[in-house]
Amino acid sequence: MIFWSRLAFGTTPGETLHVVAGLLLTVVYAVYQWRHWSRVRPFRSQLDYAMGVLAAAFMALTNLTGLILGSLWWSYRFGPHLRFGPAANDAVRYPPLLSAAHNIGSMVVLAFVGAHLGAVLMRDRRGV
Fold this sequence. Notes:
By secondary structure, the protein is mostly helical. It is built from 4 helices and no strands. Helix 2 (15-40) packs antiparallel against helix 3 and helix 3 runs antiparallel to helix 4 (96-126).
């Protein structure tokens, strides 16, 4: 929604909610991933493991870029020059490559998480 609305209208509705939810979900994901890896390690040469490692790597990249973008958002919204009135709705100028890495990483995460879950379900169905 944020990506599309910025392209279509030049605004980013829900950006504050996205930043806050992203920060909270980063903490939840870190705890989940730590517990999950503790349960499934060591790495095995299987499709489901490879897809899971790729999903986790891209999730880490997406979370890292999101945290950097979130810090830029925070400094723009609450930095030394607080914006009130109409200026409070000004779009934050994010570095294009960083923003692109975050947006594309999000889509890649969805693809690899889906592939990981599909591979796990296929593995379990075969009883391997």
